[in-house]
Amino acid sequence: MSIAPETAARVAKLARIKVEPEALPALAAEFNTILGFIEQLNEVDVDGIEPMTSVTPMRLKRRDDVVTDGDRQAQILKNAPDAREGFFAVPKVVE
């Protein structure tokens, strides 16, 4: 598969990337290089190979899922412009 400069311009527009018209042929060539690498990967025989999530098999470290208040109320409320009784105080907006 080959990418033309017009297709590269469309991809750039969809990605919301501004590409000058004189840079489109170089961008198309980069896309073609990437597609060439993908075609090489498609030639590899992977039948019978288990998918990997990491090159070294290990379990993730886990912690107990315990609900807490974070024990940081005073530090958080210290930044509030107005705090009362342990809560943020805001102006009344509904009658």
TrEMBL record:
InterPro entries found in the cross-reference section: Asp/Glu-ADT_sf_sub_c, GatC
Pfam family, one: GatC
Highest taxon in the source lineage: Bacteria
Group of enzyme by EC: ligase
Keywords linked to the UniProt accession: ATP-binding, Ligase, Nucleotide-binding, Protein biosynthesis
Catalysed reaction, written as an equation: L-glutamyl-tRNA(Gln) + L-glutamine + ATP + H2O = L-glutaminyl-tRNA(Gln) + L-glutamate + ADP + phosphate + H(+); L-aspartyl-tRNA(Asn) + L-glutamine + ATP + H2O = L-asparaginyl-tRNA(Asn) + L-glutamate + ADP + phosphate + 2 H(+)
Listed EC numbers: 6.3.5.-
Family stated for the protein in its record: Belongs to the GatC family.
Subunit-structure text: Heterotrimer of A, B and C subunits.
Biological function: Allows the formation of correctly charged Asn-tRNA(Asn) or Gln-tRNA(Gln) through the transamidation of misacylated Asp-tRNA(Asn) or Glu-tRNA(Gln) in organisms which lack either or both of asparaginyl-tRNA or glutaminyl-tRNA synthetases. The reaction takes place in the presence of glutamine and ATP through an activated phospho-Asp-tRNA(Asn) or phospho-Glu-tRNA(Gln).
The protein's name in its UniProt record: Aspartyl/glutamyl-tRNA(Asn/Gln) amidotransferase subunit C
Provenance organism: Seohaeicola saemankumensis
